[in-house]
Structures are given as C-alpha cells and as structure tokens.
Recover the amino acids of this structure.
C-alpha cells in the first residue's frame, strides 16, 4: 500500500481517491497523505495534508541512508535505587587518604591528554564516515514537490504540532531538515495557503491557521467550531451560526473507507515487503503467509552493500511451539530463541551455539525456564562440553545450584565421566549456621566428599568437613567410621569439636545424597536430550496454531459452517417444493388425480369442488374449536373444584398435602391458561385463515373460469 | 495361675528389684534404645551424656518413685510406662518435656505437672485416677490419654474443655464407660477434640450429644465464655501496659493510678466519705490529673518512636559496615586459598620425590625452605589484610557510637524534663486538692446535723479539729510520697534503659571485635599447623634439628 510511485518533482499527474489507494495498496505521496489524513480526521485528530517541497530521499522513499528505527534496543535498563528519604545522621569515619595528590593530578593530566588524542581520532573517523554517507548532490534540491501530514495540537492528547511522513508512518518534529517548504495546507474544512517565508526552516513558521497574516484562506471564514466567538449571543445557536459568513468545502464523494482486520493483516502487497535501510534489510510478512510463521525479520549487515551478515532478528506469531523471537548472532555464532509461557517443558529462552550438536547436552547452550511452573523449580541450565550447571529458584530444600564437571571419556568409556558435583544451598534460618550446609562437593573420581558450611554472623571463615569415602565392598555394604578418614575445620575457636556420631551421620547422609545426585544428573541429561529432540522437530517441521475463533483460517470450523449452510438450503428447497394445494384431495376424489383432468374445470365442477373444500375447512375449524373449548372447560372446572376443596380444608391439611395441592394446582392453572391462549388464538386466526383460503382459491389456475364468472356476477 | 504368672514374669524383666531410678539404669536404658550397629558403637564409645539425651525410655524397670531425673536437662520425651509409680513428682526440672508417658502405673492423683508448660502429649493410661485436676498450666496439651482409670463420673471430663489445643483424647476403660451417655457427653462437650479414642468424631454424633445435654452444655458454655472474656480483657490490658512500659509511662494514661493512690491511703478515702462539695473537688482533681498525664503519655509515645528510629538508623549503618567488612574479608581469605594451592602442590611434589627416594632431604632442603617461606609470606599477607579490615571497621564505627550515645542521652534527658514538669503539675494539683479538702471539711467541722449519717469513725474525726487536720496532713503526705515514688520509677527506668543500650552497644562491639581477632588468629594457626603437619609427614625420619628448623615460625 505504501509502495511509492516514482514521483517527478512536479505535481502528480493524477490523484486517486483514498478508497482506490487502499484497494490498490499503492499511491503517490498525495494519495498516501489523503489516506492517512482521512483516517486521522475520522478518529478525531486535527490533521492536514501539507503540500510543499522536500528532500530527494523523502520524495523518492529512499531509505538506505537512514538508520532503521525498528532495531530492538538491547541495552538493559538499569534502575537506580531511590535515595534514602532521610538524611543519614550517622556516618562512617572516612579512611585517611594516603595517596599523593600531586601524583594523582599528574596522572589525571596524562589521562586527559590521552583521552583527547583518542577523542580526536574518533571524531575524525566519524567525520569520514559522515562524508562517505552523504547523499550525492541533487540538482533540483528544493524543487521536489511532496505531500505529507501536519498534526496540530489541541485534540486527543496532541500538545505540539508535528509532521507525519505518510509513506513510512513516522512522526517528525517541525524543524526536521528533510521538509523544506510549505506551499499550502488543507483538509476537509478549508484550504490554507502559506504566506510565510520558509528560509529559516519549517520550525520557525506560525501554525496558527486562523492568523490571516500568515495563512490565506481559500474559503472565507472559519467553520463554526473553530470560530473565536466574542460578543456573540451563544444562546441562540442559529444566530450565532450565521453571524459570520462561511463557505463549506463540498462534501466528500469518496466511498466510505473501511479496512477489515483481514485486509489489515494482508496490507503488504503480496503479503511481503522488504525495506532497505542503512546496512539493514527489514522484511515484513503477513501472518500465516509463511510456513514457519515469521512476521518480521531484521537483518543487520556489516557493509552498505548488504553482503556480510552481522545479526538477524526474527519475530514469529501463531507458532504451536510458542517461539516468539529469534536472534542470530553471525559473528559469535550464537542463536537465541525466546518463547511465550505455556510450553510443556516451560522453556522461555534458549541460547545455543550454531555449531553445537542439536540434540546433545555436550554443546554450549543455555536453557532458561519458567521455574514457577516447573515442579523441580529449575530456573536455568547451562551446558558446555565438560560442565553442566543447574540453577534453581525457591526450592523447598533450599538447593540453589548444582554444578557438575566432567572429564573426557577414555577409550574404554567413550562417554564423558563425572568429575565433581557441587551442590549449593541457601541459608536455612531455622538451623544454626554451623550445622547448615552451604556447599556439598562430591569428588566422584577422588572418592571424597567435601562439606562447606554457612558463615556464622561476624565470621570470615566457615566450618568445613572432608570425608574419604569408605570402600563399601570391603565392609559388606556397611558404612564404618574411621576418624583418620575425615578432617575438618571449625571456625569458632571456642566451639567444641563435633561428636563422632554426628560426623558419622553426616557421612551416611552424604553418601546417600551423592548417589541421588548422580542418578538425578543422568535423568536430567536424558530429559534435556528429549527436550532438544522435540525442539529440533519443532524447528524443522513448524506448525502454526489457528485460533478457534479465527473465521478465516479455521478449516474445520469452516467446513462445519459450509455444511450448515447447505443443510439449511436443502431444507428451504424442500419446503418450496412441497407447497400444498388444498384442492388436491377434492380434485383427486372427482378425477382420480390431484391435478384434475389437466384442463380447466367447468363452472359446475368448480363450484362443487370449491364448495366441498370450503365446507370441509369450516367444519374442521369448528371441530377444533369445540375440542379445545371442551378440554378447557373440563380442566377449568377441575381446577375450580380443587380450589374450593382447598379453601374448605386449608386449616386441617398437613404440610405435605398442602404443598402437594399447591404443586398440582399450579400445574392445572398452567394447563388451563395454555388452553385459553390456544382458544383465543384459534378464534383470532380462523378468520384470516379462511380469508387466505379464499384468496388462494380465487387465484387457483384450475378455477380460473369459475372465478371469472363469480367475479362477473359479483360485479354486477 | 502359676503358669501365667511365670509367663508374665518372663516378659517383664524378672531380675530387676523394685527400686528407684539411678544413674546406671538411665545409662543402660539410653544405650539400649540408642542407635544401633556402627552408629551404636560410636554412641557407646562417646559415653552417655545425661544432659544431652532427648529421649529416655524407662519401661519395665519396676520403678517405685520418680526421682533423679533433674540431670536430663534437654529431655523432650520421657517414658515411664509399666512401672510401680504411685505419685507424680520430681518432674519440675524437665521444663522442655514434650511427651510424658506414665501409663501402666499405680498413680492415684494428677499432681506436680505445673512446671511442664511445653507438654503436648500426656499418657496416663491404666492408672488409678479418679479425678481430673491440677493441669491448668498445660496449655499446649495436644494428646491426652486417661483410659483404663477409675473415673466414675463422666462430667469430670468437662475439665478438658479448657485446653484450647487438645485434639485427641482416649477415655476407654473407665467405670463410667458402661453408661451410654458417657460418649454422647464427651462428643458434644469436647468440641475442639477431633479424635476420641483414636476415632474421628463426626458432626452428627456431636449433634446427638448436644440434644441430650442441652442444659448442661449451655451452663458450661456460659462459664467458658465468661472466663474467655476475662482472659481476653486481661491479655489486652497486659499488652497495653507492656506497650506503655516501652516508653516508661505504664499506668499513667487514664485515672487508674490516682484511684489506686486513694485506695492505698485510708485517711484520704475516709475523709472522702463526707461527700457533698468534696466529691466535686475530687472529680476536678482527677480531671486535672488525667489531662496532665495525657500530655506526658503522648510526649513519651512520640519520644519512643523517635528513639526507635534513631536506633534503626544507627543499627543500619553499623550492620552495613559489618556486612561490607565481612564480604571483603571473605574475599581476602578466598584469595589466600587461591595462592595456597600451588604451594601445596609444590610441597606435595617434594614429598612424593622424597618418598620415592628420588632425592635426599639434603637436596630438597632449599626447596622446602623456599616453599615454606612463600607460604609464610602469604600467611603474613593474609593476617595483615584481615587485621586491617577489622581495625578499620572498629575505628570507623567508633565516632558514630559516641554520637549515638550522646543522642540517646539527650533524648532521655528531654523526656525526663517533660516528666518532671508533669509530675510537678500533679503535685500542684495535689496541693490544691488538699487545700480545698481542708476548706470543705472546715465548713462541716462539728456540724452534727450535716454529718448525721456519716460512719462513726468519720463522725468522730469531724468532731475534732486537730484530728481532722492531722488526717488531712497525713493524706497529703501519703500522696506526695506516692507521686515521688512514681516519678522515681520513671526516671530510674529511663536512665537504666539508656545505660543498658549504650553500654550494651559498646560491649557488643568490643566483643565482636575480639571474636573476630580471635578467629583470624585461630584460622592462621590452623593453616600453619596444617602446613607443619605436611612437613612433619616427611621429616618424621629426619633429625630433630631440621624438624625444628622447618617447624619454626618466621
């Protein structure tokens, strides 16, 4: 839609209506500005089309000299802690400053000098770049006609006037250098010609359109809602309205603009658009138009000719695997995928090396999880070739991280071998620090266990304990305790040495824990391999999710609707087919066929048939009325009897009987009422029904002769 | 019969003579129920520490008397089942006791349990108890077993209603259990008990009981409600007093104190009985007092908040400084460990060379001394850094500490000034009251008509001018003394609080400083010792001269 027609620097040759521009999805700047202003005015903004002159790049929609505005900002926002509300009344005595001030000053001078040098080089470099990037000279600069949009303040939260470039949809301040002159400004209310000089840039202009010394109006006066009503009696609107003469712009003859949601999604011509920015290619796609669901892609290049890739960003929508963005770093060979919440494995970010084996935990990769949804509260997992690091958050057992290192496999055992397992726990406030384990380090290959305890308050060293694991095979599976196979350091010089029994218990516990941890790591590795396999499948065979309520793409629903429509059509068709001819039985009785003898009936025959038909109809109606009447009377009397019985006996009835009476009488009353309604309805309807029958017979093709006769007689 | 007896005696330790608890029995029982196998070996090796045992089971020991249990200070669970105990006694020391099992004994009376406030499980199954009593202090009781006793009246069990945390009761086997009403009563009366005889009580069952014992239950409920209300009111009052005590103005809000002053002064209250004008003056006096004291209380409350804020500011500063210094020290220690690693590696290499006889000690000696020296260097660095950090922390906080003490003193002085003014105003009111009292009484002096219905002693006083004046003076004196005492109390408490706080802060800081220094030295000694041990493992066989050289300090 925003594809620019190459515009010569004179006026455009033609001007399509905004409606056509939308249908064609392309147009020259005037047409685009008309579309945009129409939408803006429609939603209540004070917008104008500006006719004037602009730079070549704007007029021709050249963007390879501008910086892409859609590159995501990756700098993290650092929030500074709020300053303390109260001035601190106590402070630490500052340490005496023992460094030489002279030396510092000299150093400072030297550094400044160096910095200056560096800055100079940097400035020169920047200048060179700027020179290289400068566009070639334009022989007709300042003569290229362009149209864009001016937004004036005062409505819907717009405070300051600003411009919008209709071909990009980006706002620019009034003094932006790309717009050079303003000839005129118009919208659906008036046409204003600029009387001001544009030498000092557009920012210096007066945008008060009512100021006649700056803006000449094509149509005299202002529309009512813009007038400065001073000294006019507002109570009588008519007089107030007429106090100033004003001519209106002719009403629009353009068809009403409308863009459906589906049209909006398909706004790029051919569902696909590529914009070339400076060193950047921006691609946009309509949702569902690509097989993998990509909707936007930004490719950042090293060079102006877009040959060497630096970074690629991709945005996805409607993917079943909930992948939302991908960032590919072509220099560091790193891919980062982010996911929406709600995956089965609760993955939210996956960063991995491009060359890493796709389904193995031995490559460099980081998986971040939505820990809250996971039973094991796993928050992050970092794998490299010889390490495996799990991070947990908020676990009940206070485990914070588990770090595993491996050594390379040998020939006999090609798999990598567990070397150390380090488990870190957070401080448990219910247990004294001397009994609260901070780190458990299992040296699997050295057959030792190391325990580091938490630091006590005001302590700079912590308790440690080291075990050399006993050989269970020698003792028949029993854990025996040897004081020389354990050593420890107690940080508190006043504390007692731990009891051997407690040390022994710690040994037993931790031998168990080690086995659990090793099993856990094996399980975890196979789990992650499973996840990675699943990811590989999702990446190679992407599927898109179609919402249940998506009327365009939900194929199953569509099929259902179609079936419904055909069914409905079939029913109506049948109904049309089976139009009932009330004369049919009589004709059949007389001639043996429902369609008579085929020819017109004689007057005599016709009279007979007609008479029979009408008589039967009347009799039927009467009989029906009688039946209903009878039923009504019977029920009504029963109801009245019941009621009398109740009135007589109401004080001696048991509660059960009473409630039974109420329920039956309510039912009876309902039935009586029903019959009554039916009866009145029947009475009301029988006359029109009779009329309808008569009308039908009067138009019956077989009775034409008879009707003509009848008509003739009646007229007489 | 004989056969049965012999069987029984086989089960119940036949060899034990009926007696009392002694050390040997305790040790034996603890060992018997302690850990088994390897852990048991270590447990036995270490010896039994009676004051550390958390659980002691003295079952089937034919104990006649509970005694000698005061050693078991950290006892949490005590089982004295299947003995011959007749009285509950000598349990007062076992304050931490959580579970007490006295089943299958011959106890006739519940008593001497008042000290066991933490008791949660109490089992008195199969005894000879007739009455529930003396358990009011056991507020934490959760499980209670009184089955197989001699309780004849099930209404006795309404005693159990007072235990708010009680959830399980076992009652089976009492004489009154034959009465079907018993269980109906128990289920309806003990509303908080979830399990009766270890079976869940359903709401329907409670409902049936409630219908039967409607009147009785209502009476019980009313009594409970009354005591509950009293309890809540008392607790609230105590909480308020406690709260005011924090700002040293307890009992000063409201007319409470002045009323108690008159109560303690019989002369004043006697004279007050004259009535008439005097009552008006009295009311006025009270009003003035309340107003004065309200000002003081408000000021004291504000002062309390300001003080708390000040303490918080100071604490924050000191805590932050401490955290920072600890963090830095930890870094220093980690750095040291990092530096130590290669040295240990070198030393191990030397040792392995020596043990493999690749080199003699003479050849290795320079190497050893070199490594030892570098080790000494890094140890010295460690010491210097750690001590610098600690000394700086101490010195940098010192000024703030002094400032804090000054500020606190200033605040307390201000509070005392305000309180002096308030008490001075009170004394003035008192003087005024005394004067008015005298005037009012003087008008009535000797007026028999007006004093017609006065009590005889008052009448007597009012007939004699001297006696009356004496009484008035005495009352004034009494009151002045009372006021002085209250003011003194406030002043002493405020000053003591300040002294404690300031002194405590200083003491804590000094103690912390000393602890840290001690820790640093201890750590360094440990490191040295470790190093020396490593060298020793090699030099065991070497002549003592070298050993002395290597093991020497720098």
């Amino acid at each position: 839609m925003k594809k620019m027609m190459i515009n010569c620097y004179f006026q455009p040759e033609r001007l399509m209506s905004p409606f056509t521009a939308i249908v064609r999805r392309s147009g020259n700047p005037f047409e685009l500005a008309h579309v945009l202003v129409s939408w803006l005015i429609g939603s209540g903004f004070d917008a104008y089309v500006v006719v004037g002159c602009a730079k070549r790049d704007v007029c021709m929609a050249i963007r390879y000299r501008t910086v892409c505005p859609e590159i995501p900002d990756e700098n993290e926002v650092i929030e500074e802690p709020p300053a303390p509300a109260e001035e601190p009344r106590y402070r630490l005595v500052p340490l005496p400053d023992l460094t030489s001030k002279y030396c510092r000053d000299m150093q400072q001078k030297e550094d400044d000098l160096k910095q200056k040098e560096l800055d100079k080089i940097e400035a020169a470099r920047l200048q060179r770049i700027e020179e290289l990037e400068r566009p070639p000279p334009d022989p007709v600069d300042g003569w290229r006609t362009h149209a864009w949009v001016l937004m004036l303040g005062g409505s819907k939260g717009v405070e300051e006037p600003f411009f919008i470039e209709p071909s990009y949809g980006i706002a620019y301040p009034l003094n932006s250098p790309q717009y050079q002159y303003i000839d005129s400004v118009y919208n659906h209310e008036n046409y204003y010609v600029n009387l001001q000089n544009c030498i000092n840039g557009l920012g210096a202009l007066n945008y008060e359109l009512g100021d006649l010394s700056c803006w000449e109006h094509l149509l005299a006066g202002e529309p009512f809602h813009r007038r400065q009503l001073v000294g006019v009696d507002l109570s009588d609107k008519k007089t107030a309205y007429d106090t100033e003469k004003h001519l209106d712009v002719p009403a629009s003859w353009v068809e009403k603009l409308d863009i459906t949601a589906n049209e909006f999604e398909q706004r790029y011509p051919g569902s696909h658009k590529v914009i070339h920015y400076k060193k950047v290619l921006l691609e946009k796609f309509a949702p569902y138009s690509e097989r993998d669901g990509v909707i936007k892609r930004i490719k950042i290049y090293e060079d102006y000719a877009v040959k060497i890739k630096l970074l690629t960003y991709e945005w996805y929508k409607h993917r079943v695997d909930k992948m939302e963005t991908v960032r590919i770093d072509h220099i560091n060979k790193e891919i980062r995928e982010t996911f929406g919440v709600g995956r089965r494995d609760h993955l939210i970010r996956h960063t991995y090396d491009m060359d890493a084996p796709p389904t193995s935990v031995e490559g460099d990769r980081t998986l971040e999880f939505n820990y809250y949804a996971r039973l094991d509260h796993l928050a992050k997992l970092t794998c490299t070739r010889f390490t495996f690091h799990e991070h947990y958050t908020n676990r009940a057992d206070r485990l914070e991280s588990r770090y595993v290192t491996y050594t390379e496999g040998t020939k006999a055992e090609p798999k990598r071998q567990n070397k150390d397992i380090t488990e870190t726990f957070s401080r448990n406030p219910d247990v004294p620090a001397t009994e609260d384990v901070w780190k458990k380090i299992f040296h699997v290959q050295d057959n030792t266990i190391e325990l580091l305890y938490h630091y006590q308050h005001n302590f700079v060293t912590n308790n440690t304990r080291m075990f050399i694991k006993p050989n269970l095979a020698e003792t028949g599976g029993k854990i025996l305790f040897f004081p020389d196979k354990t050593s420890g350091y107690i940080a508190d010089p006043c504390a007692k040495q731990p009891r051997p029994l407690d040390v022994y218990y710690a040994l037993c516990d931790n031998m168990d824990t080690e086995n659990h941890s090793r099993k856990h790591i094996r399980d975890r590795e196979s789990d992650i391999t499973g996840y990675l396999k699943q990811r590989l499948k999702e990446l190679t065979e992407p599927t898109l999710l179609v919402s249940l309520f998506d009327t365009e793409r939900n194929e199953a629903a569509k099929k259902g609707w179609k079936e419904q429509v055909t069914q409905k059509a079939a029913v109506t068709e049948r109904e049309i087919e089976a139009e009932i001819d009330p004369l049919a039985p009589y004709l059949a009785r007389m001639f043996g066929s429902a369609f008579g003898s085929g020819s017109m009936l004689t007057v005599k025959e016709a009279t007979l048939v007609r008479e029979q038909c009408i008589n039967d109809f009347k009799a039927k109606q009467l009989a029906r009325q009688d039946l209903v009447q009878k039923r009504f009377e019977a029920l009504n009397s029963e109801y009245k009897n019941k009621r009398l019985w109740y009135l007589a006996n109401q004080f001696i009835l048991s509660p059960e009987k009473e409630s039974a009476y109420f329920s039956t009488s309510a039912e009876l009353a309902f039935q009586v009422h029903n019959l009554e309604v039916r009866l009145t309805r029947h009475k009301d309807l029988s006359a029109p029904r009779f009329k309808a029958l008569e009308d039908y017979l009067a138009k019956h093709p077989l009775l034409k002769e008879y009707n003509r006769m009848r008509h003739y007689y009646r007229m007489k | 019969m004989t056969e049965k007896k012999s069987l029984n005696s086989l089960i119940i330790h036949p060899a034990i003579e009926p007696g009392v608890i002694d050390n040997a029995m305790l040790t034996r029982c603890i060992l018997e129920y302690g850990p088994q196998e390897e852990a048991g070996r270590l447990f036995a090796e270490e010896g039994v520490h009676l004051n550390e045992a958390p659980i002691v089971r003295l079952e089937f020991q034919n104990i006649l008397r509970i005694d000698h249990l005061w050693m078991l200070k950290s006892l949490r669970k005590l089982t004295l089942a299947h003995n011959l105990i007749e009285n509950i006694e000598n349990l007062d020391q076992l304050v931490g006791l959580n579970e007490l099992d006295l089943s299958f004994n011959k106890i006739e009376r519940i008593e001497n349990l008042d000290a066991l406030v933490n008791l949660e499980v109490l089992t008195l199954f199969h005894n000879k108890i007739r009455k529930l009593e003396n358990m009011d202090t056991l507020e934490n009781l959760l499980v209670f077993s009184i089955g197989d006793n001699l309780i004849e009246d099930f209404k006795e069990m309404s005693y159990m209603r007072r235990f708010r945390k009680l959830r399980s009761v076992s009652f089976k086997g009492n004489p009154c259990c034959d009465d079907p009403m018993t269980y109906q009563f128990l289920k309806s009366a003990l509303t908080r008990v979830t399990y009766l005889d270890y079976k869940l009580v359903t709401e329907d069952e409670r409902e049936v009981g409630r219908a039967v014992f409607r009147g009785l239950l209502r009476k019980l409920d009313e009594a409970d409600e009354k005591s509950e209300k009293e309890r809540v009111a008392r607790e609230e009052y105590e909480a308020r007093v406690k709260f005011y005590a924090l700002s040293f103005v307890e009992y000063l809000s409201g007319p409470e104190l002045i009323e108690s002053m008159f109560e303690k002064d019989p002369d004043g209250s006697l004279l007050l009985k004259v009535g008439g004008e005097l009552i008006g003056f009295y009311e006025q006096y009270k009003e003035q007092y309340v107003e004065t004291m309200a000002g003081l209380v408000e000021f004291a409350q504000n002062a309390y908040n300001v003080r708390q804020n000040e303490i918080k500011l100071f604490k924050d500063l000191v805590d932050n400084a401490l955290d920072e210094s600890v963090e830095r020290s930890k870094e220093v220690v980690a750095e040291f460990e990092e530096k130590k690693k290669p040295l240990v590696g070198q030393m191990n290499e030397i040792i392995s060379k020596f043990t493999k006889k690749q080199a003699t000690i003479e050849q290795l000696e320079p190497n050893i001394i070199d490594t030892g020296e570098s080790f000494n260097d890094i140890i010295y660095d460690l010491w210097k850094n750690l001590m610098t950090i600690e000394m700086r922390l101490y010195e940098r906080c010192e000024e703030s500490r002094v400032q804090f003490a000054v500020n606190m003193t200033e605040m307390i002085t201000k509070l005392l000034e305000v309180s002096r003014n308030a008490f001075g105003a009170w004394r003035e009111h008192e003087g005024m009251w005394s004067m008015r009292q005298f005037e009012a009484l003087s008008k009535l002096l000797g007026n028999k008509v007006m004093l017609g219905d006065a009590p005889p002693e008052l009448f007597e006083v009012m007939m004699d001018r001297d006696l009356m004046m004496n009484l008035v003076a005495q009352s004034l004196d009494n009151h002045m003394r009372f006021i002085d005492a209250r003011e003194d109390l406030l002043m002493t408490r405020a000053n003591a609080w300040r002294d404690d706080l300031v002194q405590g802060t200083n003491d804590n800081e000094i103690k912390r400083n000393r602890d840290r220094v001690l820790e640093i030295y201890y750590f360094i000694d440990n490191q040295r010792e470790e190093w020396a041990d490593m060298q020793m493992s090699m030099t065991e066989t070497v002549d003592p001269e070298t050993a002395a050289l290597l093991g020497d300090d720098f």
